[in-house]
Amino acid sequence: MAVVYTLLVLFLAVFVAGFILLVMGAINFDFSNSEIPPGVNQPVKLRIIHIILICRAVVGKILENIGICSQVSFLRYMQDKKTLGVDTKLFIKDLWFEKVPVRIYQPKVPSASQRRGVVFFHGGGWILGSLETHEKLCRSIARESESVVVSVGYRLAPEHKYPAAYEDCLNATIHFMKDSEHYSVDPARIIVCGDSAGGNLAAAVSQTLAGRSDLPKLRAQILIYPGLQALDFNLPSYHQNRGVPLLFRERAAFYVLQYLNGDASNLEEVLEGSHIPIDITLNYRKWVSPDNIPEEFKVRGYKPQVLLDCPTEVNETVKRFCEPNLCPLLAEDAIVHQLPESFILTCEYDVLRDDGLLYKKRLEDNGVRVTWYHLEDGFHGIIHSFNSDWFSFSSGKRGLDNII
């Protein structure tokens, strides 16, 4: 019995030591490939959050390797486990719009007229995120703007590939627009809003609804550091911020491939730019080009990328990258000029910064009124963590105040 006990203790010791070494190795590897520039808001706090996220990812991978659950399932579980109590200022109810789960936040304070409506799409790279992860943010928007907020729990990749998320968001939005007066919302004052991947979905939904004559015109779109294209992962912001948490350049490409195909088998080709034929790339250069980025955003360094030829078999797997419902930056002018008033928030230390800047230019070139707010000390994901107790960032609160 003593021998068995001793062996068990030794096994546990080896397991714990191996686990610690694995976590430390992952942290060291991630550190060597990451950078937090001195201009980032509260860099020490960001580094700590980054370490926590690395540890979660490592634990998830261990659980996946021993057959307990997938890494994605574990990460989703860790994100969703926090629950908030009753809000004294809001009525909160879970419903279904066209088989899509939604959560509605309605201010309790009486209103003399119909309210504004905000349809919100959460971020998370189309893989993570949920109604729960953006609960605090949606509550704040509803309370501070005295709006009815509808948070959409769209289907996630890789289980549900493109266009599942887009279709869920579109169907939920149309349902709300048709039934808005039931929630005391003015049908002429409905806004679509989203952060990161949610910003992508908001832009795509806004474009689809722009030509609809059977529905009220959207009042506005709010795009919070949106990802809007997958043609060029070598724009200045992708080079300058490629290793800045919380979104690395490689991870941005990984997410969009997971959304499109359910796997990332063409990651290297996408990163080097050999996933799209040169003639198609040149055709879209009028919209997706470093030449359209203001010079002040290139001072931290930028090296133009040489165009590479695209193997036919690679293009076949990612050719839908040219669809505006996946990459809204590629929509034709005839659609863009019909878009509603827009608010775009970008962060200096974010790989997706230039997607927002390019879309801002496209909208303005087509006569769409744009309010642009740039967080010079911000990083990707900063709005989402604006009021997460110790993990909050003053810059994130500043960004949210401007959104409100």
Concise structural overview:
The protein contains 14 helices and eight strands. The protein has 404 residues and is an alpha/beta fold.
Structural overview:
- InterPro entries: AB_hydrolase_3, AB_hydrolase_fold, Arylacetamide_deacetylase, GDXG_lipolytic_enzyme, Lipase_GDXG_HIS_AS.
- By secondary structure, the chain is α/β, with parallel strands linked by helices.
- The chain has two domains: 1-79, no CATH class; 87-229 and 322-403, Rossmann fold (3-Layer(aba) Sandwich), CATH 3.40.50.
- The chain has 14 helices and eight strands.
- The protein has helices at residues 2-32, 43-65, 71-80, 135-145, 164-178, 197-210, 236-240, 249-261, 267-272, 278-283, 312-318, 333-336, 353-365, 394-403; strands at residues 90-97, 100-107, 115-121, 148-152, 185-195, 220-224, 341-349, 370-379.
- An eight-stranded mixed β-sheet has the order 1-2-4-3-5-6-7-8, with helices on both faces.
- Helix 2 packs across helix 3.
- It is globular.
Key attributes of the depicted protein:
alpha/beta, eight-stranded mixed beta sheet, 404 residues, 2 domains, Rossmann fold, 42% helix
